[in-house]
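I'd like us to work through together how a protein chain folds, taking it slowly. We need material for that, and I hope you will provide a protein of your own picking. Go ahead whenever you are ready, and we will take it from there:
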Amino acid sequence: MKLTDVGKKGLDRLQARLVLLGYQFTKEELLERLIEAGSEKPAAIIERAKAASLPIPEKEIQRIIDSSEDMGPTSWRDIDRILYGRKLKR
């Protein structure tokens, strides 16, 4: 299996940190443990993948800005009514 330079450096750093904590793993053992951990909690991998896609591309930011509407002057009551669909209890 091939790793990028960033992946290799990350694996080396993790291996070194574990040595400092008193655990020695070969890179192969460490990768096996990481695969086991990822298999047990795939949501953690998905969260990492989502976070890796940040920051939002400039084109996407502009699309969001262009889709906004000016609602004119609004109060917090107007915003609550729009967001929650009801009047506030006083």
